[in-house]
Structure formats: structure tokens, C-alpha cells
Amino acid sequence: MTEPFQLAGLSLDCDDPESLARFYLGLLGGRVLWNDAHSVGIRIPSGLTIAAQHVEDYYPPQWPGTAAVHLDLAADADLDLCEQHALAVGAKTAPVQPDPRWRVLLDPAGHPFCITTRLAPN
């Protein structure tokens, strides 16, 4: 049997969808697919759709502590330069850094994401 599902996208809750979408466009590149009163969808060069969606009374997850799905981003060989780029487009450094092979950052809505040069084998 073939796989019954394909990953259609990733939705991120927030209070300001336009701002969060602009952040991910600046971080990952891509293009806007839609922009309406409740959400903004972007497609990044890898083909993944990211939807920033407004949630009333949104509060960000806490890192570490809150169970959350987060993005792991593959960086080129210079982890410091990749981290500097993420900070320049609006990321913040997470207060806890559990492993020196990864950098844990927070997007403008407070979602954690990791940058690493360590990739899973095929």
C-alpha cells in the first residue's frame, strides 16, 4: 500500500499572522500563498507550506517545558553565521541551550526552532 498521507503544511498559532509570515519569509525565503483576516500562508523553497494563523488570546509556548512541535533547520557549515541571520530577521536566542551542536531560537511569536549542521542520515 502506498502512503495514505502527505504532509500538507505546518500551522503556527500566533497573535499577528502577517508579522510571523514575514519572519519566516526572511528566514527561509519563499512566497506568500494567501493573506486573509485570520491567516497568512507561505510556501518555502523546500515546498512546505507554513500557515501563520491568528488565535485569540494567544500565548507563546515556554522553552523548555511546554510540549511543542518545533522546526529543526539544517544550516550550512557555519552555525554562527546562520544564527546571526536568524537573529537579524527577528529571532531571539532561547534562554536554555541544551546541546552545543544545536542553537535553540524563538520566532517572533515565541515558537522554538533549532538550527544545526547535524543532519539525520538518509
Give short descriptive properties of this protein.
122 residues; alpha/beta; four-stranded mixed β-sheet; Glyoxalase_6; VOC family protein; Glyas_Bleomycin-R_OHBP_Dase
Description:
The chain is of the alpha/beta class and 122 residues long. It is 18% helix and 30% strand. The chain contains two helices and eight strands. It is globular.
What topology emerges from the helices and strands here?
Layout: E1 10-14, H1 17-28, E2 31-35, E3 39-43, E4 49-54, E5 71-74, H2 79-88, E6 92-93, E7 102-106, E8 112-116
Parallel strand pairs: 1-4, 5-8
Antiparallel strand pairs: 2-3, 3-4, 6-7, 7-8
Query: What's the arrangement of strands in the largest beta sheet?
Result: 1-4-3-2
Assembly type of the chains comes to single chain
The secondary-structure class comes to alpha/beta
Helix content, binned percent: 10-25%
Quote the distance from N terminus to C terminus.
22 Å
Instruction: Calculate the mean pLDDT score and round it.
Output: 90
Strand content: 25-35%
Radius of gyration: 15 Å
Low-confidence stretches: none
* Topology pattern, helix = H, strand = E: EHEEEEHEEE
Question: Major beta sheet, specifics?
Answer: 4 strands, mixed
| Number of H/I helices | 2
Shape: globular
Would you count the extended β strands for me? 8
